[in-house]
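pasting for the record
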Amino acid sequence: METSLSRRDRTGRAFLTGIFSLISAAWVLPVIIVLYNSFKDNDAIKTSLFSLPNADSFVGLENFTAGIFHGNYPFYFSVLYSIIITVLSVALILICTSMAAWYISRVDSIFCRIFYYLCIFSMVVPFQMVMFTLSKTADKLALDTPFTIPIIYLGFGAGLAVFLFTGFVKGIPNDIEEAATIDGCNTLQTFFLVVAPIMKSTYISVGILEIMWVWNDYLLPYLVLDKTEYRTIPIHIQYLQGSYGQVDYGATMALIIMCLLPIITVYFICQKHIIKGVLSGAVKG
């Protein structure tokens, strides 16, 4: 009986491994296609998208050069603005939402419950429902620069971040904070010196999730920013389309790879922290 059960267990695991391997391959395959097509000329991409580069279609780094120096808008400006927006937005989200989650978890009031549920509700509201109103509001409030758009990202990113941080903070014993207060720490010192270090894994997981979202986001910067003055990398890629709908597919795929590499690298480095932080934030409390 034990042999039969173990055999069945091994068979089930092998079946699940095969299924998830196929799903993983389906997710990775488009990235691989974009990668090797970034080294092919435009005609070869149009006629044989799924074929590997050969002696006739291989162009080396020409697509990367063409994408970087396309048009009159310098590509390094797009990289700079993407970095500024991502760093400021993620920093603002992490600081504000972690402090809000700590307050919500420690203060039992109607206001805190309503605020928490509003944050949860914001996670299910489609962006398309508010994007036109948001665009007008951002223009009136002068939130249309890389230094002010992080305020908008804070509003859209607060839901998930507050949810994860609140779940983790509920698992932190109050005795630790009471001991810090007895030792002479005020409220801010208790949070930054005692609570924040304990939430390291959740900070990393929320930070990586928010980085991937903000860095790759196209629609919000396109609606809010002045595209003649400020362009993020996704917007710069969109402007590779020429007159009469002509698109330089090679340069487009080359810039997509350049855009993906930093995020993929950071994700793989911090993958274990992401899983640990999401589980602790979703289960505790």
